[in-house]
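wait is this the right file?? whatever heres the structure
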């Protein structure tokens, strides 16, 4: 989403060249699986933002807008009970649905 590099897929149609990048990191359980907190980045852009968190915030504001970035930041500091099994089920289904949609 930052540099515009094309995504590459394996024979099963799974993406292999890009990564999920969280504006608010994995430590923030409340936004760990929040779809508004994740963007698709190539490895280079992902590493760049890990090393330059201030630049990541500026980019997120440009992409999402100040209001949404503020909302994500507030949500990231709130408590949310972990339910990794449920999250895994939900996101596996979302991924399956996306793959089906792309193959049409």
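ok assuming it is, sequence goes like this
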């Amino acid at each position: 989403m930052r540099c515009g590099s094309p995504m590459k897929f394996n024979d099963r149609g799974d993406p292999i060249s890009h990564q999920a990048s969280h504006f608010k990191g994995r430590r923030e359980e409340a936004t760990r699986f929040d779809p508004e907190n994740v963007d698709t980045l190539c490895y280079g852009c992902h590493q760049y933002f890990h090393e330059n968190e201030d630049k990541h915030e500026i980019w997120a504001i440009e992409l999402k807008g100040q209001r949404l970035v503020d909302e994500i930041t507030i949500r990231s500091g709130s408590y949310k009970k972990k339910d990794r099994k449920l999250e895994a089920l939900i996101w596996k289904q979302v991924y399956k649905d996306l793959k089906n949609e792309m193959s049409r």
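Residues 84-102 form the longest helix (19 residues). so i think its the right one actually
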